[in-house]
Amino acid sequence: MEYVKIEGQFPKFSHCAVTLGKFDGIHRGHRKLIQTILNRKKEYGELAVVMAFVSDRQTLLTSEERRILLEKMGVDILLECPLNDQIKHMKADVFIRQILKGDLQASCVVVGEDFRFGHERKGSPELLEKYGEKYDYETIVIAKEMEGNRKISSTYIREELKKGNMEKIADLLGSPFFTAGVIEHGRGMGHRDFFPTANIIPPKSKLMPPNGVYVTVSHLEDGDYPGITNVGYKPTVGENFLGVETNLFDCDLDLYGQKCRVDFYKYIRPEQKFTSFEALKAQIRRDIESGKNWFQEEKELVKTLSFGKK
Ligand SMILES: Cc1cc2nc3c(=O)[nH]c(=O)nc-3n(C[C@H](O)[C@H](O)[C@H](O)COP(=O)(O)O)c2cc1C
Ligand SMILES: Nc1ncnc2c1ncn2[C@@H]1O[C@H](COP(=O)(O)OP(=O)(O)OP(=O)(O)O)[C@@H](O)[C@H]1O
Fold this sequence. Notes:
Elements: E1 2-5, E2 16-21, H1 28-44, E3 47-54, H2 63-73, E4 77-82, H3 85-89, H4 92-103, E5 106-112, H5 125-135, E6 138-142, E7 146-147, E8 150-151, H6 154-163, H7 166-173, E9 177-182, H8 189-193, E10 198-200, E11 212-220, E12 223-232, E13 243-248, E14 259-270, H9 277-297, H10 299-304, E15 308-309
Parallel strand pairs: 1-4, 2-3, 2-5, 3-4, 5-6
Antiparallel strand pairs: 7-8, 9-14, 10-13, 11-12, 11-14, 12-13, 12-15
Helix pairs in contact: 4-5
């Protein structure tokens, strides 16, 4: 997949199916749009292009995580376009003429039914359809993917993330919430005095669930491991950065420097400040027990995952 960060000019393409939006999280609604451009690629040989508008706010997916996901899905080109004043204030018809038609030479544009863009948010699926006749591209408008009577959106997922409702999020995304990074050295106390753990430090731009303990699956280069993860600042020892620290069940490998993706399945408890290491250690032992029980109970889910060495 080609990744282009727009810093001024847009690149020139031709014969492409473009989908437009913020695409944070890549939820079930987004997947419908992406599947549509992939179908067009198969059927008409169009380049599958995702144009993602990005702002400075914290996001469910880092830029790199989104890149990895879209590449895996089979997207040809990801255009990351900053949602700056120039783009926000560009008149919708100018955006269509200069960028969609002039630069990308889109033959197909795919958006959700409530997609809005351009100055005063006057750009709409109807406007795209109207200009499509003039500029010779097809517009495909996708009905909103719903969860009950609520539209699935990144906003909805952000709300659930604040509550630590990981099961609901997995349902809305179509796969678990995750954070990806490289395993770093902790203070080494885990190995000496507690339990061995794998630490990753998510960037500040990444939205995380509440500080606390979660049932997780870590996907490593060596294999996939169930485990239990603490998200937070370890108040008992006092850390000055937010860490994601996982005790992998049945894994005694040296993992430092490995790439890792931690999938979050269930929230267990909030992070706490303990009065002694012994009390913390006893609690972590109970957490590990809860985690193992959860995997026992979720046999159906476990069947779809293959644990252990690859
Ligand atoms: C499952 C689990 C739960 C944890 N819960 C807490 C907690 O509630 N409070 C806390 O201060 N630290 C918690 N920790 C972090 C420990 O303080 C940490 O593992 C220990 O200080 C070792 O850190 P190090 O690897 O950086 O040396 C937890 C760690 C794990 C793996
Ligand atoms: N539930 C959905 N079903 C179908 N299409 C969707 C759905 N949600 C968003 N889309 C479409 O996907 C594209 C990207 O959506 P975008 O990420 O901008 O919106 P969102 O998920 O509703 O996020 P937010 O809540 O931040 O506004 C847009 O074309 C949008 O209309």
